[in-house]
């Protein structure tokens, strides 16, 4: 589905990604893990068109998307849920959700809302509530729901468990599994390495802008270097 090959990205003169190559197969959950500053968010921003590559290629369903605009990439079916939720705090839940459907015909939006409410029943009850007054966990639901409103084939999630209480983290990862079961491919960026690799079909470890390791989720969890560096074992 998504293929990134020898991708290089820089912020001015500062190189952020070095020859990054990875694949996200159709129907899988792929985890991208690593320390802060490793380049994980930069990769997602580049795939979603918010940053431009210096060199390399990105294809989605066999089509090159390096020069596509962010709206066109969403129309292709690639949707990015950013780190920190980035909601419109003074708008209602329903208004935030509908902001995610700007590429979807108006006639299809009610069906999209029902799909989101099926995944997050509490948002049906909260739909008229101002988003900024929700709990952190509920705001994360709105952020993911807004992404689902675009009808993604590939959903890229950047640190969905960030800042959540431990009891809520389990729920977020359960939702990711459910979304995948609904037929959505997931690229998950997450510092919670244990949860992410347990969930993932396959994973990539990024260090200093490069892919350092790759393998199935279980293989990486068993890797001594991963266990020492990211699990404290």
Please state the overall shape, judged from the principal axes of the Cα atoms.
Answer: globular
- Residues in helices, as a percent range: 25-40%
Order of helices and strands: EEEHEEHEHHHHEHEHEEHH
The helix/strand class is alpha/beta
Task: Outline the low-pLDDT stretches.
Answer: none
> If you compute it from the alpha carbons, what radius of gyration comes out, rounded to the nearest whole angstrom?
17 Å
Q: Which strands sit side by side, in order, in the main sheet?
A: 6-7-8-3-9-10
Main sheet?
6 strands, mixed
Into which percentage range does the β-strand content fall? 25-35%
Terminal Cα separation, in Å? 34 Å
**Strand tally, please?**
10
Report mean pLDDT, rounded to a whole number.
Answer: 93
Tally of helical runs: 10
How would you characterize this protein structure?
- The protein has helices at residues 40-47, 70-76, 93-99, 109-119, 121-126, 136-148, 166-181, 193-199, 217-222, 224-230; strands at residues 2-11, 14-24, 29-33, 55-60, 63-64, 78-81, 154-158, 185-189, 202-207, 210-216.
- With 233 residues, it is of the alpha/beta class.
- It has a 6-stranded mixed beta sheet, sandwiched between helices. The chain has a 4-stranded antiparallel beta sheet with strand order 2-1-4-5, covered by helices on one side.
- The longest helix has 16 residues, at 166-181.
- The relative contact order is 0.19.
